[in-house]
From TrEMBL:
Function: Abolishes the inhibitory effect of tetracyclin on protein synthesis by a non-covalent modification of the ribosomes.
Protein's UniProt name: TetM/TetW/TetO/TetS family tetracycline resistance ribosomal protection protein
PANTHER family to which the protein is assigned, alphabetical: RIBOSOME-RELEASING FACTOR 2, MITOCHONDRIAL, TRANSLATION ELONGATION FACTOR G-RELATED
GTP-binding found in the keyword field: yes
Species whose genome carries this gene: Paenibacillus tianjinensis
Alphabetical UniProt keywords: Antibiotic resistance, GTP-binding, Nucleotide-binding, Protein biosynthesis
PROSITE patterns per the UniProt record, alphabetical: G_TR_1, G_TR_2
Alphabetized InterPro entries for the sequence: EF-G-like_DII, EFG_II, EFG_III/V, EFG_V-like, G_TR_CS, P-loop_NTPase, Ribosomal_Su5_D2-typ_SF, Ribsml_uS5_D2-typ_fold_subgr
Amino acid sequence: MNQQQRTERMNIGIFAHVDAGKTTTTEHILYESGRIRALGSVDSGTAVTDSMEVERQRGISVRAALASFTWQGVEVNLVDTPGHVDFLSEVERSLRVMDCAVLILSAVEGVQAQSEMIWNALRKLGIPTLIFVNKMDRTGADPEAVLAQARTYLSGDIIPVQQPLGKEQEYSGAADLWNAHADTAAQTELLEALAERDEALLELYMAGGEPDLSNWKREMQAASAAGRLFPLVYGVAAKGLGITELLNAMIDYFPRAGGDASQPLSGLVYNIQRDKSMGRMAFVRLYQGTIRNRDTVTNYSQEVQAKVTQIRKVEGGRTEDIGALTAGDIAVVYGLSGVRIGDVLGSPDAIPQEAKLAVPLLTVRVFWEAGTDDHKVIGALQELADEDPQLGAEWLPEERELHIKVMGPIQLEVLDSVLESRYGLKVTFGPPSVIYKETPNGTGEGYIAYLMPKPCWAILRFHIEPGPPGSGLVYESVVRSSDLLPQYQNETARRVPEALQQGLYGWEVTDLKVTLVEGNHHVWHTHPLDFAVATPMGIMDGLNRIGTRLLEPILAVRIVVPEENAGRVMNDLVQMRGSFEPPVLQGERMIIEGRLPLATSLDYPVKLSSYTKGRSTFTSAFAAYEPCPPDVHAERTRRGVNPLDQAKYILSVRKALQG
């Protein structure tokens, strides 16, 4: 135990926009550290962290992959996350369990939409971050422009600790600015950058004299480990240039994983995958305590006990039984029956908050060939929804329809491939439709007196008002427990979010505050489930009186096109109800940033690529849900009976509850 407690450990996530060279960097890190004997490649489908068949075929990462190695005596868990926006939910889950992060930027493309989104999430969670500027040997590589962009879009506290040697094809590496023989002007710039941000260092700098570089570097290390400064290094991952220096920088500037192995258990399940022979694999980050093979642990989220059958380190296709998982480490735990992503093992006290990035904006219907067993398809997609809860697989028995939520078209291609290779199922998908939402038009009340058919008695009055954009649902009760018993109040509170899943137009109702202002039960006639029946009727009564308006998803977009196409792009954006900032000329390319409704721009990336002959890039990220113009109408068929038809609704719910 003492030996395990003394082990220095780090959990590092590798993040980037798609095609910045993330998996290639990971592969070279594993090779350089001696963890693998031969280099794999993304293009030839042999990368260790791309273990799924579809990843090897497409040359993209779909899953967050875990790999471990040792460098300078420190044990490192490295998570290579997907770069494509369609797999943002994998990134989101990985972010939560990382202690530090490497953000890779391309020396040619610079800061892209997803790099910015990940950066904001890293800052929200306070995760120390190092920047690796990759592809320094490419034509068009411009480290000065990338640094200026990074300081504009990401943080003014990004500080290069190296000086690039040579440009583009002439690039030969980077010089360490902490070396006594480093370029004087570049080293002075580094020291001045530190002095500007620290009063004690400023005094030391102003006093003159020969600086003690080791002392200054220690100050930089402390500020970086605390997430106040962000060191920047350079390299060419595909040639292995700068990888050793990147590894050294991780050890120099990143904090070690904390946690006490002797404390009560506190861990988080951040990923679920499946093993053909062993079943469900729960990827667990442990913050406190120890889990051993054959231990029984408490699943706090589900309030159940679960038995651990085995603990393994998993890497690509290889696994290794390690027998125990201790605080600060990450491993795969087998045997936790029914475990789900996000489940807390033991106590939640030591577990950090999460940063929400992924919002599925499209819904599609799944079709399969006649003669295929419905239950096999439904079971397969529900199993995949365990691995990615954002899928929200929903089977509508009355309509005999299966619907899923997705981030984009690449995700559908991957699902198609996984369903065929893992389950032997051939499916097709209907055209994607945009997921709208609703919000109250104003303030008002909803009332229900559910007194018939006996035995029943539940009276509720809700005050409903709009909330700020992005606030979701805020619920509170001002009813005294003498008027409405706590157990009935709890049942009502539990049913309000369910009641808001379908508003007047069939979409989820959001950005509102619901306050229970009156509630009444009957000593003899009330049954606990009466409030489960009454709540949706009271809520829908209120929404019907107030009215709701549609909200649509808006994307933040960045479009880079040849200068001659810029006029047409701006015209397109206006036609699609978009807005944009004044375009910026960079070399012969025009950069246009703006906001665009998803509904009007679903096919635009293909159209743009076609008329610019592939010489354009279109990157987008979810920005917000905003009110639709009055002429936009989008209604979704309601599932189940509408609570506004109270008599029919009561009969259907009572039947379902009794069943």
